[in-house]
């Protein structure tokens, strides 16, 4: 998963204890868009189609295919990274963590590996360990904006929103107008129910040339939670296959149909503007 979407796993957990079940934009095609970027090249098998176009069963089959390559050579860095990524995309977070533990043992100084290991820890609920791993991957003399953003996402999961937003802004200093970081920043404000500020950052993210569909789905959520349901559905349908668009819109509708929960969120948002 790329940094904007490390939120997906914990948004589902957060939903269990908050007024509204916040949409985890890893449904349908959105997870595929993320995974497409994360797949690395190397000695892994070629996939039959882009990850972004795969449905759930195809993602499972892809994970099995790449998993076989990993089993043949557990020290293969790219096979391990890709296998763990696909496992996370199919919800197998504990197994993804186990794979990344082995990859990290074999590549203990690889920053990309350590970053992916931290994300796997976060997805499996090991937040403090994930924070330590991501910090260990960072180097002061050559800071990595992706790691800054990943650290911010973990801090948000720990409820440390002020620190998280500082990390996002540091990432933006290194990589100005990066849509993934702007999206993470917007979702940070959404999680604290400041919907108007969330929309501002998410619109900025979606306007960037490199923005992917998952960024626009986050924007759709922020718009829908403010009661502009038709506009949210229009955004949610953009640049997806018909099947992916329908799945996302159906999920968006189900979340936004929780009127009592929406009213509580709206009141909280009004409090942020006073």
UniProtKB/TrEMBL annotation:
Domain of life according to the entry: Bacteria
GO molecular function, one term: identical protein binding
Protein's UniProt name: Pilus assembly protein TadD
């Amino acid at each position: 998963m790329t940094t904007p979407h490390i939120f997906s796993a914990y948004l589902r957990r957060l939903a269990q204890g908050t007024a509204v079940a916040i949409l985890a934009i890893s449904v349908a095609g959105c997870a595929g868009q993320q995974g497409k970027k994360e797949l690395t090249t190397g000695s892994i098998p070629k996939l039959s189609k882009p990850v972004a176009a795969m449905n759930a069963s195809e993602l499972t089959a892809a994970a099995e295919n790449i998993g076989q390559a990993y089993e043949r050579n557990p020290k293969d860095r790219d096979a391990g990274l890709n296998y763990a990524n696909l496992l996370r995309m199919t919800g197998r977070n504990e197994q993804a963590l186990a794979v990344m533990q082995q990859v990290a043992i074999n590549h203990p100084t690889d920053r990309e590996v350590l970053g992916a290991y931290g994300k796997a820890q976060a997805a499996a609920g090991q937040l403090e360990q994930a924070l330590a791993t991501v910090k260990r991957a960072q180097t002061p003399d050559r800071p990595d904006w992706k790691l800054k953003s990943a650290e911010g996402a973990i801090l948000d999961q720990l409820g440390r929103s002020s620190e998280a937003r500082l990390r996002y802004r540091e990432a933006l200093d290194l990589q100005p107008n990066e849509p993934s970081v702007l999206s993470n920043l917007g979702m940070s404000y959404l999680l604290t129910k400041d919907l108007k500020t969330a929309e501002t950052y998410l619109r900025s993210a979606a306007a960037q040339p490199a923005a992917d569909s998952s960024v626009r789905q986050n924007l759709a959520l922020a718009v829908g939670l403010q009661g502009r349901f038709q506009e949210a559905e229009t955004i949610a349908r953009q640049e997806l296959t018909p099947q992916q668009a329908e799945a996302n819109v159906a999920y968006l509708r189900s979340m936004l149909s929780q009127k009592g929960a929406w009213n509580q969120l709206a009141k909280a948002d009004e409090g942020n503007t006073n």
